[in-house]
Amino acid sequence: MGNWKELAYEVLSGKQLSKEEAFRILKSPDEELLELLHAAYIIRHHYFGNKVKLNKIKNVKSGICPENCSYCAQSSISNARIEKYTMLDKASIVEGAKKAYEMQVGTYCIVASGRGPSQRELDTVTAAVQEIKKRFNLTVCACLGILNSEQALKLKEAGVDRYNHNINTSEKHHSAITTSHTFDDRLHTIKHVKHAGISPCSGVIVGMKETKEDVVDMAFSLKALDADSIPVNFLHAISGTPLEGTNELNPRYCLKVLALMRFVNPTKEIRISGGREVNLRTLQPLGLYPANSIFVGDYLTTDGQEESTDFLMLRDLGFEIDFKEVTENNC
After folding, report:
1. Pick the catalytic residue: 65, 254, 262, 276?
2. Which residues of 37-48 are buried (b: 16+ CB within 10 A; e: fewer)?
3. Rounded distance, CA 228 to CA 191, Å?
4. Is 271 annotated in the active site?
5. How far, in Å, CA of 319 to CA of 315, rounded?
């Protein structure tokens, strides 16, 4: 037996998992899954109770991206049939925030494709964020690609609370996924964001032909980055992308990944993100025992679960929507 409950209390006492212990989580037998999830929930409940944070994405620029990320339907090497458009105007971005606010979603995520924002795109986003902050008590997260220090400061001045830039995979596996930017490019962006005083959000995509050792390395890289929010995506392989047809995941392994992230990053927001519907399937509710955050609505180029189903799932689990970010504007 894994003695997962004992390990959970050790983590709450300040223990930091070794990579060997973390690897043991991913290798644990399925018969121990409920015990593992209960142990992860002990840690989750200690820091977050039964509350769940809600996030909603607005895709403000789709496709037209020069990067060659193998998983992405918007990349330059993708033949996926997706809607493509340039940066939306300020009014459209603000309208998306209004809808998020009406749904009682705490965090509104402004996401744009591309290597990084042009000056015009940055101006549009900052103007929209300023308007959003005047009208709605929302936490605003931006995800615009690679940033320099000056761009990060402009976003902070506009009122951006959080910035998302995922590491996506391990440093060792990175070149198998993309060669148009480096792993260090991603780390530098997170460092610029932190230096500007913006809450860093960085996560992963699991299921891209990486090893279990890679997944462990991802968890420890995010620990080293001290990311406040960790979105865990599970590959939704899209037709027309290089990873088309990849199907390495099952719901039980996905749950072990979420438990791993909670054990390694006990105090952080762990968010079940893209691909949860097609990979966790009927076990989606169990994901909220290690995780404490989800996206509601659609993702960038794929459909999400119906919002009403998500809210019903939360009620059935006995979880509460966390309005702390809304009422205190706290990242």
Report:
1. 65
2. bebbbbbbeeeb
3. 13
4. yes
5. 6
* 25 neighbors 212 (Cβ within 8 angstroms): no
Q: Using the predicted structure, report yes or no on whether residue 159 has a pLDDT greater than 60.
A: yes
- For 243, the token pair is 């990873």
Task: Give the C-alpha separation, 170 to 172, whole Å.
Answer: 5
Give 4-53 pLDDT, tens digit per residue.
999 999 999 999 999 999 999 999 999 999 999 999 999 999 999 999 99
Active site residue 143: no
The 10s digit of each residue's pLDDT in 208-229 is: 999 999 999 999 999 999 999 9
Unique residue bearing structure tokens 């996905």: 254
Determine phi and psi for 285, rounding to 5 degrees: -60, -35
| pLDDT of 70 higher than 70 | yes
Instruction: Check 141, 162, 186, 262 and give the catalytic one.
Output: 141
What values do phi and psi take at 216, rounded to 5? -60, -45
**254 catalytic, yes or no?**
no
Task: Single out the catalytic residue among 44, 262, 271, 276.
Answer: 271
In angstroms, the CA 8 to CA 31 distance is 18
Q: Which helix (H) or strand (E) holds 232?
A: strand 229-234
Instruction: Centre a 10 Å sphere on the Cβ of residue 175 and count the other Cβ atoms it contains.
Output: 11
- Active site annotation includes 201: yes
Residue pLDDT, tens place only, 177-186: 999 999 999 9
Q: What is the DSSP string of 97-108?
A: HHHHHHTT-SEE
